Amino acid sequence: MNGIVQYNGTKVNIFISFVQNNGTNIYKRSFFVKFIMTKTVKNKILHQLNFLKTIGYNYHETVTISNFDVNGNSLPNNLNELNLIMENCYLCELSKSRRNVLCGQGNPNAQIMFIADEPTASEDELKSFFVGKTGETLAKMIENVLLLKKEDVFITTLTKCKSLDSITPACFNSCNSYLYKQIDIIKPKLIVLLGEKTYQYLCNDTSSSFLKIRGQMTKFNEYDVLPTHSVSYLLRNPSSKKEAFHDMLKIKSILELN
User: Fold this and answer.
1) Higher model confidence: residue 9 or residue 97?
2) CA 39 to mean position of chain CA atoms
3) 186-205 tens-digit pLDDT
4) CA angle at residue 234 from 231 to 235, to 5 degrees?
5) What contacts 112, CB < 8 A, 6 or more positions away?
6) Which of 16, 176, 239, 243 is the most exposed place for a label (fewest CB within 10 A)?
7) What pLDDT, on a 0 to 100 scale, did the predictor assign at position 15?
8) C-alpha count within 13 angstroms, C-beta hemisphere, residue 11
9) Burial of 37 (0-12, 13-18, 19+ CB in 10 A)
10) CA neighbours within 13 Å on the CB side: how many for 35?
11) d(Cα 151, Cα 143) in Å, to the nearest integer?
C-alpha cells in the first residue's frame, strides 16, 4: 500500500512495508512515512497499522513514525549529508508552508560567512540565494566592495525555511543545531550577521542597541562576528547605505589581515 493517506485534511505520504503469507505467495513491501504533522495523525496511522497486523500482515522491520532528534553530536560533519537532513526536516511549523529548504550556498571553505534571519520570498521560490532584489544587492556589495565573487563566500540563514508571517523563537530553536553545525564545518574567519534579529538571536543579546553594536566586532563562541544592516533594511532605508559601506570596508580589511 503506498500513496497519500489523508486524516482531517492532513496529507501524509506513506509507503507501508509488510510480509504477507497467504499460504501460496509471499508479498514483500517497504514502509516509509515522509512526515507526520500531529500526534493525532500518528496515532491514527499506528491504529491502522495494528489493524493490518491483526488480519495477517507481519512487519519484517521495526516501524518508527517520528522525526529525528537534532543535536550537534548526531549531525554529520559533511555539508552534503547535513543538507540532506535539512531538506527532509519537519521539526517546526515552517515545514507546512515552505516551498523549498534553503540550506546554504557558497564555498564550503569560505573565510567569510553571511547569516540572515530567514530566506526571502524570491529565495524560497527559486531555491537559491542571491536572487531577487535583496540577493542581487548583497551580491553587488560583496563583489564591488569586498572584491570577492559571491561564490567565494558562504551564505545561510537562521531558519532554513521561509515564514508566511513572522518567525517564532521555536522555529529558530528548531534550526539552531543545523546552523551551529554549518559554522563548525566551515570554520569561517569572520561571520557577518545581517540584521538586528539575526544578531539578537545568535549572540543572545536583546538588551544592546543594534545601532550602537552594528559594525563592532564581537564573539560567537570562538568565532569573530560583525553585525551589520540587513539588505532589506537598506532597501527600506537608503540613508543607512553609507554605514553598511563602512562595515563592508572593515570586513575587507579583516580578511586582508589573514
Assistant:
1) 97
2) 23
3) 999 999 999 999 999 999 99
4) 90
5) 146, 148, 153, 154, 188, 189, 190, 191, 192, 251, 255
6) 239
7) 43
8) 5
9) middle
10) 12
11) 10
